[in-house]
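Contributing new records

If you add data, match the layout below exactly. Sequence lines come first and carry their own label; structure lines follow with theirs. Keep one chain per record. Anything else will be rejected by the validation script.
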Amino acid sequence: MRWSHGVLAFMAVLAFTVSSSAGGEYINIKDVTMHLNEGNATFEINYTLETFTKLYVLALGCRYIEPDLLSLFGNYSSAKVIRADPDGAALMVAGAGKYNSGYYLFDSRPLGSGDKPLKEKIGRFTVVYPEGRARTFFNVTSTQNVFCEAKAAAIRPNQSVNHR
């Protein structure tokens, strides 16, 4: 009985400590990798969590930090968390790139959202192109303007295929 009271008290202290952190300040982003796939982008985020937050996440799961992970890409309307754990996460943004003349164009977008802009620069931001080539940018506060060639076999919406 005492053990269960001790666990409940510990969880209450953890919840209070985590909730008193100003939004997102308990997540320290180490690096972000953006994988391009046709018009979609997958972002892999490596981060460290503040000690009490990490204990909370280990005990109760990552659902608590998912809103802050999504707010990092708040300027994309279709961002979804694919996976999250105490050390990193993966988010998918469908339709992040726009198709134009055989290429997908990915415009630069500020990281964070209108009401929660990113306060600190991300030390390393890497873009991985579909063919495997990678470009790394340092100390960024936004995604980068990049483009990739569309696959010839892919059929895009509102386009017809001519068979001769």
